[in-house]
């Protein structure tokens, strides 16, 4: 989930946009309404809005400056997770993107997923299965996704204790296959093994030769493989450059 504040100051009536995986829209609405209690809060889907990811170019510095032409945009703001993810653009459906961001090119949604897989950025229920994915193992502390100063929340004690102890044995990491896999690719949840057959982690999701997997940090630099049918398919993992330098523990 990503949250965006639309009101300009605390004096204004709060308006928050919540970005979520469309496949769980109904369940998220029901979950939020459980906690509304008697507060005057209105929770409404926004089918008239469209969401765009504005991915920076390959030139140095492209990720640091926000596009200037945003008259038609309801919201154009840096992606709160990481600078390498560029910006989030929310506009009315049918808005002219070339006018909002002159010189931009409209890509395919798979271009966006390939970019975030390269960077090891998880998103949606495939990458972060509800009830299974742990915040610290999913690197949410690197992406403005966890507060260690706010009051109590579900799972706070375990999350805070693990963070302060500094022992995180598994993390979500970008993985790459030597070449795009044929057919349906790798089933979600497939076990990843070391060359000697030790369990190294599980594949979460991917496309083509790229993906994201939950891996034991002790095996990150080893040759890895997945059993597909009767064959073993090799893959390699890497540590994203945007991570804090002292991140893996």
Compact summary:
By secondary structure, the protein is an alpha+beta fold. Helices cover about 15% and strands about 25% of the residues. It has a 6-stranded antiparallel barrel. Strands 3-5-4 form a 3-stranded antiparallel sheet, with no helix packed on it. It has a two-stranded antiparallel ribbon with strand order 1-2.
Features:
249 residues, alpha+beta, Elongation Factor Tu (Ef-tu), domain 3, 2 domains, 3-stranded antiparallel sheet
Explain what the structure shows:
GO terms for molecular function: transferase activity. InterPro entries: CAF17_C, TrmE/GcvT-like, YgfZ/GCV_T_CS, YgfZ/GcvT. This is CAF17 transferase. It is found in: Mitochondrion. Keywords: Mitochondrion, Transferase, Transit peptide. The protein contains 5 helices and 11 strands. The chain is of the alpha+beta class and 249 residues long. It has 2 domains: 118 residues, no CATH class; 98 residues, Elongation Factor Tu (Ef-tu), domain 3. The strands form 3 sheets. It has a 6-stranded antiparallel barrel. β10 and β11 form a beta hairpin. The chain is globular, with a radius of gyration of 20 Å.
